[in-house]
């Protein structure tokens, strides 16, 4: 109850104050101060309490069926009593109560674009994407400098003249989650870096010198410094703790690299709710602004062309009834300098070239690179260029202006989508996904599916690699395979899980192994085991083996039972080698198929599933 003091200068001898029964003495020497209770605040509070109780009573009898208004009113009242005037939001034009106050555990979900050279963080504010600056920059360079005074994040080298150049570390995205023993290109990628990279436990670590002491840091620790700054920028905006995020990664990232990104974010105090492939996020970002494509009933195909620092990535996706998934993704180069002079052309001849001839040579060079990358993507997606209906370009806008005319010409004049900045399309898509997960989006769910970068499978008799989930399969997915014993009275099966594109397991990468014991004794080929291979939305692998009829089951999980990171072979090299040795390995595979190798005591062979036999039988009768 509020108590106020009211001064009185002259009162009659026997006057009464409201709500009191005390008399005041009239004294010229002393002027007393008395306490009164005003009626107006009491009436207001009683009215509010009465209205509240009446609303509860009506709701309990079902007279008021919709309690949205009541919930909203009570929250607004509670916010006003607890927080008073909404706090100032420095980066927004208009305040919004739901972002200024934490209501019943509400926490905003942010989105982080983890780029090759810079990262940024944003979220949806009043239905509009807002990018939160870090030290005045909307994109924070992926660099960390270690000095005797402390750690500097996101600074250019020119801004750090007093820092030892070997202590300025960058490019963690290209080395985290990789191993020296299984990645032949990792040593080549790190030997020319200005900072020192060492081999520790088969993984790359960085050595810096601070106060004359050696400090060994993992790529995840270094990248966490950048993620932490992005998190703090979002927290400064909202004025509350942020712990959940959506994050974008390259489509070619392996399982190990994706896990490394999650570990790095966890060190920064962030839980990654979902990793979204960059081309998937770009397609979502454009489709969020082009609802006619997003909600199309008929299947259409979209090409996303991303270019950054002379590297290009072409991804082809399908969209149907608001659901879309990646069909293929290929990488290439696109340089804007002229190629080497033709054979027989001397140095003096190069000075005689005209400006038009020089530009024509550059244009031809760009077109050849672009067409090669795009054609490879079309081939992998099993499409023709006439099948594509949507063209999207993302990345460096200055490079896009040079490439876009060639891309549109290749597709017979089809124009690229506009209306969204190519530089922010990826972050926009991630923000859109974060808005969906937070429950703030007033619209339909958009399904975003990723693809497998490499084939998953198991080893069969003879050291053959049996594919279960092929490369470029949409995830989440579930595939089945039946296998049987190769020896009489065989009571155990050994399952070796591999990833790769080669015909023999010796040329692929081992993910892990598990056994299925206590099989029913019988002749070879009698016991049949069903193998179920599943990939979730984060491309995490789980394999279950179940004896049909016996009930014995064993489970192998890459997320729990397998924490090591072995799948780090360079993707491009693996695909090139697979294509180079395909014909030779097909012949070898035919020779070894079904043969039992020496010491293969618990081996397996594939047997047709009942559904496959029935399908082949129906095809024969057609």
UniProtKB/TrEMBL annotation:
UniProt key word Nucleotide-binding: yes
Gene Ontology MF terms: ATP binding; ATP-dependent protein folding chaperone
Transmembrane segments: 37-58
Catalysed reactions, as listed in the record: ATP + H2O = ADP + phosphate + H(+)
EC number(s) given by UniProt: 3.6.4.10
InterPro entries with a match to the protein in the record: ATPase_NBD, HSP70_peptide-bd_sf, Hsp_70_fam
Family named by the database record: Belongs to the heat shock protein 70 family.
Keyword Membrane in record: yes
Region feature (Disordered): 1-29
Protein name: non-chaperonin molecular chaperone ATPase
